[in-house]
Amino acid sequence: MSTTRTGTRKPSKVAPAPRVKRAPSVSFIELPAEVEDSRVADYVAQIEAINRSNAVIEFTPEGRVLTANQNFLNTVGYTLEEIRGQHHSMFCEDTYAASAAYREFWARLNHGDYDASEYKRLGKNGKEIWIQATYNPMRDANGRVVKIIKFATDITAQTARMSDYSGQVEAISKSNAVIEFDLQGNVLSANENFLATVGYSFDEIKGRHHSMFCEEAYHTSAAYRAFWAKLNRGEFDTGEYKRIGKGGREVWIQASYNPIKSRDGKIFKVVKYATDVSAKVKLGGDVQQVTNVVSASSAQLQASAQQMSASAEQTLRQARAVATAAEQATRNVQTVASSTEELTSSIREIAARVQDASLISQQAVRQAASTSDTMNKLGQSSQEIGHVVKVITSIAQQTNLLALNATIEAARAGEAGKGFAVVANEVKELARQTARATEEIGMKIAGVQQDTSLAVAAIKEIAGIIDRISGISTTIAGAVEEQNAATSEISRNVAEAARGTAEVSANISSVTQVAEESGRTAANVKSASDQLSREAEKLAAAIVLFMPR
Description:
Elements: E1 4-5, H1 33-53, E2 55-59, E3 65-68, H2 70-76, H3 80-83, H4 94-97, H5 100-110, E4 115-122, E5 128-139, E6 145-154, H6 156-175, E7 177-181, E8 187-190, H7 192-198, H8 202-205, H9 216-219, H10 222-232, E9 237-244, E10 250-261, E11 267-276, H11 278-413, H12 418-546
Antiparallel strand pairs: 1-4, 2-3, 2-6, 4-5, 5-6, 7-8, 7-11, 9-10, 10-11
Helix pairs in contact: 11-12
């Protein structure tokens, strides 16, 4: 490690030898005594002032300590007795004290050249000390170097701060993309990290304006002008920025633009420290997209859960209603089954009665047919009686005619025929009575014949009706038989339906339980979807912080 440095360079780097000036040759001019005394007094005053504010030590040309003031002793931690006569190398690291650079250092001093710089020295117990010092060769009247006076200022604390600052800057430079601009925005310098981020070489960006890294719409905007005006006022700017790399490649950086001031407080450049966050921004975009999908899915899941819950409630209500209806249907089916059994018994009874009626109808048909035959025979007998009545009527007419002739003959006979006339009158009277009786009999027979004809017609009609009734009874008997079979089938089906409704009732109970479970599940799904929605909102809020603003 070197022992000197110039400016603000790091301690670890060897500073180039400072420019040295050879002490001018000394010439003596004789001055008046009072002037000489005045000048000496002034020199003494200056030396005293220097001694009060500086650490001062004197060495022989060989580097041996002659004397040192208290400021120097306080700086190195030694007493004068501990260092007097010791070589200057006691204040240096061994590697430097044994180096050619150290020998050259003393050679220059012995040659009369002064040396000024920042030096690393070692105090008592190896304490590291940094000093700002000048080594000044002192010549005698002959121009020969007789001693070396060093004036020093302890800058250890300042150097430590500068070293810390330098280390921090170096660390930042190693881990960040760093670029420097003048106040107009032109590129002054850039480290390798920045060049790798934007894809340019330094020769491609040196002296070019910052706007080369911005979209045209932005670098021509009032916001961009305000951005540089803000930096020129000494206000830093930090955030996530969209920049354009080589070939138009989009680059996102997390950066701070820092106006740098000189010792007099004037801003002379802007340094930007940046980190490439393109991957993070892309990830943020992807996460945002996922968040949007999650939010949409959560909303859809919530809607589905609500619909599922409503459907479950509706299913539960319907299942309960169906269960009630199924129980009622079971009771109704059981009632129908009982009624069907009664109907079956009634149909069987009706079938028996219809069968009996059919038999009776058949007997009635046969009796009606027999009665019709009898009535036909009665009609024929009435006709025959009519013929007999006609004969009797004819006989009565002839008898009446004979009685008339007998009366006429009795009148002709006179007295002798009176008795015969009486008999003739009686016969005539009997003939009239016979004629009247015969007429009445004829009328009765005619009435009997008419009634017989009507009776025969009625009996035939009754026989036809009974025959139709018999046919209908037969048809009814067949239908009843079929109905009996159908009723038996119905009875069997009703019994099966009764078992089915019982199973339906049991299944509906299961459906009710499942519906209730679905309702609980829907509630759980809704709760989970609500939680998912809240988490999605939290994620979206986090993304707002994560994404560039």
